[in-house]
Amino acid sequence: MIDNPVPWPNGARCAVAFTFDIDTDSFLHLSFGAKMPDMVATTSWARYDEIALPRILQIYRETGIRQTFFYPAWCMERYPQLVDAILKDGHEIAHHGYIHESMSRLPSRDVELEWIVRGVEVIEKMTGKKPRGFRAPNYHFSRHTAAILAELGFEYDASLMDDDVPSLYETSGGNLIGLPSSGALDDWAQFVNNSEIGSVRSVRSPEEAKNTYMAEFEAAHEYGGMWIGVWHPWVSGRLARAGSMRTMIREMQGRGDVWIATMEEIAAHVRCLVARREWAPRRVKLPFYDRPLPANDIPPQGSR
């Protein structure tokens, strides 16, 4: 069902990454402003990252894997002890905005560039290296984002959902490796129920969520695809959910033909395949549209 499966390292059937977005309370400041100081209960929920992240790192140590954490730079400055713990274990830190700002809602290309650069500078200062990867907060990716990332020397983007395997994003500023995921692999849809932030849904059990995640994994494994979880410590780092994640990792490792890697490692592998002409990804020109459609191409809209 995948026409162009990737030749993964050592004959692996698929590539897997358990990525975490460490947003803590950044998105609350951005979305609620002056109201945020009174959102004490919701803030405590988001700050559960301080409890969950050490637990996640312990699971990674137990299972012997290194993974990628997408980090708003403001959160790194606010909670430096979490950054230190991640770096101590050799994990990758990638860019996730400065304070979880939506790129597609910023007023101009120059403003978007300014805030991406601000995040780069913080990450470089705190980790000793420039970030190689990016995931747009809220998946809000503007017409300018890809070109800005390429111009700044990013290697990959993990914001889009356009394929089951890596793509090559071609932009006016250069190209990027695209490492897409799927909404089915985002833990927000499984677990987040909080009326104060406008997210109201039935909370699924860890076993129900695991069934969804593993169904996606089985398909990726069968057809030579890629499985990228988009998770959050304060969501999936709760006790029962973290235990479910540990079980999933061990089940995947037990197959013997699954490559669990950082996003940087996956992107580097794809880049090498392309350079050696051993595999050709689908080429995608970004942005898809650089301006709205002409008004006469769209019929009048209104309610009846």
TrEMBL record:
The positions making up the signal sequence are: none
Q: Which PROSITE patterns match?
A: NODB (PS51677)
Offer one Pfam family short name for this entry.
Polysacc_deac_1
Q: Which InterPro entries match?
A: Glyco_hydro/deAcase_b/a-brl, NODB_dom, PgdA-like
* BP GO terms, sorted: carbohydrate metabolic process
User: What GO terms are given for molecular function?
Assistant: hydrolase activity, acting on carbon-nitrogen (but not peptide) bonds
List the Gene3D superfamilies hit by this protein, alphabetically. Glycoside hydrolase/deacetylase
Residue ranges of every copy of the NodB homology domain listed in the record: 38-261
Family of the protein in this entry: Belongs to the polysaccharide deacetylase family.
PANTHER family the UniProt entry points to: POLYSACCHARIDE DEACETYLASE FAMILY PROTEIN (AFU_ORTHOLOGUE AFUA_6G05030)
Q: What does this protein do?
A: Is involved in generating a small heat-stable compound (Nod), an acylated oligomer of N-acetylglucosamine, that stimulates mitosis in various plant protoplasts.
Q: What is this protein called in UniProt?
A: Chitooligosaccharide deacetylase
Q: Which organism is it from?
A: Sinorhizobium saheli
